[in-house]
Amino acid sequence: QVRLVESGGGLVQAGGSLRLSCTASTRTYGTFAWFRQAPGTDRDFVAAINWIGSQTYYEDSLEDRFTISRDHTKNTVYLQINSLNAEDTAVYYCAARRANVLGRGDYDYWGQGTQVTVSS
């Protein structure tokens, strides 16, 4: 069982930046991803990264402002978000799966989420 813990969320002004972190309890050799869920909506895919960190996959509309990366030495995956706007307000979730294949679904492990709130 892999436990994922997100951090880095908070209240930020529109136009600002945040870096979210997701630390795994054990080394995980598969794919990691970030999702987000705004109030009253479904949870949406944001980005994914493979084990080596050589391949990334983004929701098309977010690729210009979001960057996913990982640090194996820390068992941590990051999500850098720039030029934040009110539509980015959501709970951001980290997910992982054993399969080292980029994709939007079939993740085995989920974190509890971290709240990001963007003020205008």
What does this structure look like?
This protein is mainly beta. The protein is 0% helix and 49% strand. The chain is built from no helices and eleven strands. The strands form two sheets. Strands 2, 4, 5, 6, 9, 10 and 11 form a seven-stranded mixed beta sheet that branches. The model has no long low-confidence stretch (mean pLDDT 95).
Radius of gyration: 13 Å
Number of helices: 0
Estimate the mean pLDDT confidence.
Answer: 95
Q: Biggest sheet, in brief?
A: 7 strands, mixed
The low-confidence runs, each spanning 5 or more residues with pLDDT under 50, are none
End-to-end gap: 40 Å
Order of helices and strands: EEEEEEEEEEE
Helix and strand content put the structural class at: mainly beta
Q: Strand percentage, roughly?
A: over 45%
- Report the helical percentage: under 10%
Number of strand segments: 11
Shape: globular
Compact description:
By secondary structure, this protein is mainly beta. Helix content is 0%, strand content 49%. The protein has strands spanning 4-7, 10-13, 18-24, 31-37, 44-49, 56-58, 66-71, 76-81, 90-97, 109-110, 114-119.
